[in-house]
Structures are given as structure tokens and as C-alpha cells.
UniProtKB/TrEMBL annotation:
<dbReference type="GO" id="GO:0032549">
    <property type="term" value="F:ribonucleoside binding"/>
</dbReference>
<dbReference type="InterPro" id="IPR007641">
    <property type="entry name" value="RNA_pol_Rpb2_7"/>
</dbReference>
<keyword id="KW-0808">Transferase</keyword>
<dbReference type="Pfam" id="PF04560">
    <property type="entry name" value="RNA_pol_Rpb2_7"/>
</dbReference>
<dbReference type="GO" id="GO:0006351">
    <property type="term" value="P:DNA-templated transcription"/>
</dbReference>
<comment type="similarity">
    <text>Belongs to the RNA polymerase beta chain family.</text>
</comment>
<keyword id="KW-0548">Nucleotidyltransferase</keyword>
<keyword id="KW-0863">Zinc-finger</keyword>
<feature type="domain" description="RNA polymerase Rpb2">
    <location>
        <begin position="20"/>
        <end position="127"/>
    </location>
</feature>
<dbReference type="InterPro" id="IPR015712">
    <property type="entry name" value="DNA-dir_RNA_pol_su2"/>
</dbReference>
<dbReference type="GO" id="GO:0003899">
    <property type="term" value="F:DNA-directed RNA polymerase activity"/>
</dbReference>
<keyword id="KW-0479">Metal-binding</keyword>
<dbReference type="GO" id="GO:0008270">
    <property type="term" value="F:zinc ion binding"/>
</dbReference>
<dbReference type="GO" id="GO:0003677">
    <property type="term" value="F:DNA binding"/>
</dbReference>
<keyword id="KW-0240">DNA-directed RNA polymerase</keyword>
<keyword id="KW-0804">Transcription</keyword>
<protein>
    <recommendedName>
        <fullName>DNA-directed RNA polymerase</fullName>
        <ecNumber>2.7.7.6</ecNumber>
    </recommendedName>
</protein>
């Protein structure tokens, strides 16, 4: 039962015995910042840790989950010899439109924080720029 649990923040578990990684603490982070290793810092703390792609509405700036409408009418191209699959079309209920949807890479903890703040009636919006 305990082995079936998972991290709610999607971050790796601690300890090599449990399939986790080596601890990367504040001192290690500070040393990489001091040496100017920005790519390595971004790779270790974001890409390999809790990388998440979220849909963001560029009209209202909301990170809420989009709904899928009419997936049977949209067909995506075949990839590497696989048969074509139906691509879902997203729809935002808050804006009543499917225009302005952008995908943004962010840590999963940020999306979790937005959900926690929404539970306390605090709306978080993002401003997207190109």
C-alpha cells in the first residue's frame, strides 16, 4: 500500500533505493548559480524534475483545464508509420471560445499552487508574450 503512493507535486522521490535521485539542495543550487551554469540548473531543477506542459488561455490568462470537443472530426498526421489519430480540439468554458489557447512549459508545482489558490478564491492569471 505504501509503495503505491506517488508524489502529488510530481517531483522525484528521495533515495536511490526507492528509485529516486540524489539530493540536490540549496548549497548545490547556489554553487551552480555562482558558476553561471544556467542551462544545467534549468535542466536539473525543471526539465528532469517536474516538467509539465499546461494549456493557458491568452485571452483571460487562466491555467484551468481545457475541455475536449468533437474529437471525431479532427485527424492528425501519421507519425513514424503509425495510423492517423484523432487530434482533440480544446474549448475554454470561461471564455466560451477555442481561440487563444497556448501551451506553456512550467513546473507542475506552479500548476498545483494555482489550484490551491483557486480553492481559496484567489485567481492567478498569466500574461503571455511572444
Amino acid at each position: 500500500m505504501v509503495s503505491d503512493k506517488f508524489q502529488i507535486t510530481c517531483q522525484p522521490i528521495k533515495g536511490l533505493k526507492r528509485g529516486g535521485g540524489i539530493r540536490f539542495g540549496e548549497m548545490e543550487r547556489d554553487s551552480l548559480l555562482a558558476h553561471g551554469a544556467a542551462y544545467l540548473l534549468h535542466d536539473r531543477l525543471h526539465t528532469c524534475s517536474d516538467y509539465h506542459i499546461a494549456a493557458v488561455c491568452s485571452i483571460c490568462g487562466s491555467i484551468l483545464t481545457p475541455s475536449v470537443i468533437k474529437p471525431e472530426k479532427r485527424v492528425a498526421r501519421a507519425v513514424k508509420g503509425l495510423p492517423p489519430v484523432r487530434a482533440p480540439k480544446v474549448f475554454r468554458h470561461a471564455c466560451d471560445t477555442n481561440k487563444g489557447m497556448e501551451t506553456v512549459a512550467m513546473p507542475y508545482v506552479f500548476k498545483y499552487l494555482a489550484a490551491e489558490l483557486a480553492a481559496m478564491s484567489i485567481k492567478m492569471t498569466l500574461q503571455l508574450s511572444i
